[in-house]
Specification:
The chain is α/β, with parallel strands linked by helices. The protein has helices spanning about 10-20, 50-55, 60-65, 95-110, 225-245, 290-305, 310-340, 345-350, 355-370, 375-390, and strands spanning about 1-5, 30, 45, 70-75, 80-95, 115, 120-125, 130-135, 140-150, 165-175, 180-185, 195-200, 205-215, 245-250, 255-260, 265, 270. The strands form two sheets. Strands 3, 4, 5, 10, 11, 12, 13, 14 and 15 form a nine-stranded mixed β-sheet that branches. Strands 1, 2, 6, 7, 8, 9, 16 and 17 form an eight-stranded mixed β-sheet that branches. The structure holds flavin-adenine dinucleotide.
């Protein structure tokens, strides 16, 4: 019998495993249906906030060595104005193949057992209490607590609410001429209220992608042709560089599942975390830092029960509250950001960007959006007002 079994070794599950190890709980098994290292469709961008979590997990210096450093963001507005925002709060692009493996290796070094490939098929129950996991091959493993971190297409989630998602399509190119250490966020009307991106990965390789709302206004699955939108986006923004660049592999897409009101994170004997709990940012699609933070909260909730003898009810309610306190403000602010993407606000901001007050407000807005904290759209609006009055 394990103390904790974790389904899914993405950033959520693996961070939970590392944090459990750090708390001295090592009778832990971490499953994944895939062997590591493994690919994951992702821009692989680690925000300043993700870097803070990595520091807690004692992995920051290694990720810094393996990743590509970003210290500027080029924003293109719907009216095709440009702002280049430099930031000391650097981000890092670290390929998921490398990054997720580093987390898993760190968990192993702390004494966690990795079991791959192991595809979890069903939760074992005693009444309504989860007591373990049955694999696709019939193998059963029992644990005092089961953490479900099986990502966007979670088969274990108990959240009855309709899924809201962001649809994505992305690709990789070599021999691509890009500005060193700078990423692009392109707020093109064709993908509003979301955006397109270019993330340099190092060498001469970039990943480029677009994300759009997965639903239309009535909540039905979008009927937009993502592939046609992407081809047009590439043509409109990167035609020159793509003439000489070479595409690497196929285009890939994957949904990003989000929520605004955090809930349905617990059941007796088990917790949901990361994207299995819909913890991504609705305006940026960021999910790595949220998944890792969620993993750290899950480890702390387990320690409350397993080490401190707190009742599960109390620990699980602490777990949900931690998430609400940490993410609800940012998720609400995400909607505010979405609401202005298709307006002329970003164009006005770009026009007024030379004004130091506007520049400061935008840097804060962008920094907080990337860091997943509350975003001051209001602050930018009042800075613009001041600029007009001056
Ligand atoms: C195109 C795209 C670009 C993105 N770009 C960024 C970005 O630049 N920065 C950012 O922060 N976020 C980005 N995201 C979001 C980010 O990828 C996810 O939010 C994040 O990976 C969620 O982490 P997780 O650990 O919850 O789930 P995942 O990373 O999805 O990990 C889940 C794990 O569970 C395993 N699994 C699933 N089912 C089972 C099962 N039945 N049994 C055993 N194992 C199972 C999977 O193999 C996987 O390893 C992007 C997403 C997409 C689609």
């Amino acid at each position: 019998m394990y103390d904790v079994a974790i389904i899914g070794a993405g950033p959520g599950g693996a961070a939970a495993a590392v944090a459990l190890g750090q708390l001295g709980i090592t009778n832990v098994v971490l499953f994944d249906r895939e062997g590591f290292p493994r690919h994951k469709t992702c821009g692989s961008g680690l925000s300043p906030n993700a870097l803070k979590v990595l520091e807690k997990l004692n992995l920051l210096s290694e990720v810094k060595t393996k990743g590509y450093h970003i210290n500027a963001v080029r924003i293109v507005t719907p009216g095709r104005r440009e702002m280049v925002i430099k930031s000391d709060a650097a981000a890092i692009v670290c390929l998921r193949e490398v990054f997720d493996h580093l987390l898993v290796q760190r968990a192993q070094a702390l004494g966690v057992t990795l079991k791959t490939p192991f595809r979890a098929d069903e939760l074992l129950k005693d009444g309504d209490r989860v007591v373990g996991v049955r694999g696709f091959d019939g193998e059963e493993l029992r644990a005092k607590v089961v953490l479900c971190a099986d990502g966007a297409n979670s088969i274990f989630s108990k959240d009855p609410r309709p899924k809201r998602s962001i649809a994505t399509l992305m690709g990789w190119w070599d021999d691509f001429d890009f500005e060193p250490n700078r990423l692009d966020m392109i707020f093109d009307r064709s993908v509003a209220p979301l955006y397109g991106w270019l993330f340099p990965e190092g060498g001469r390789r970039v990943n480029i992608g677009i994300c759009i709302d997965g639903q239309d206004e009535s909540g039905e699955k979008t009927t937009k042709n993502l592939k046609a939108l992407f081809q047009q986006f590439l043509q409109d923004h990167y035609a020159t560089q793509l003439k000489t660049a070479k595409q690497v592999g196929k285009l890939r897409g994957h949904p990003i599942v989000y929520t605004t009101w955090i809930g349905h994170l617990t059941q007796p004997g088990s917790l949901f975390l990361g994207e299995a709990a819909r913890l991504t940012h609705n305006a940026t699609g960021e999910g790595i830092s949220q998944a890792m933070e969620s993993g750290v909260f899950a480890a702390e909730a387990c320690a409350r029960v397993l080490k401190e003898g707190q009742s599960e009810k109390k620990a699980w309610s602490w777990y949900t509250n931690q998430h609400r306190k940490r993410f609800t403000g940012a998720f609400l602010a995400g909607h505010a950001l979405r609401a202005v993407v298709d307006s002329t606000l970003l164009d006005h901001v770009a026009d007024a960007y030379n004004n130091p007050t506007v520049r400061r407000a935008v840097t804060r807005l962008l920094g907080s959006a990337l860091a997943g904290s509350a975003v001051g759209v209001g602050e930018v609006k009042s800075a613009l007002k001041e600029d007009r009055a001056a």
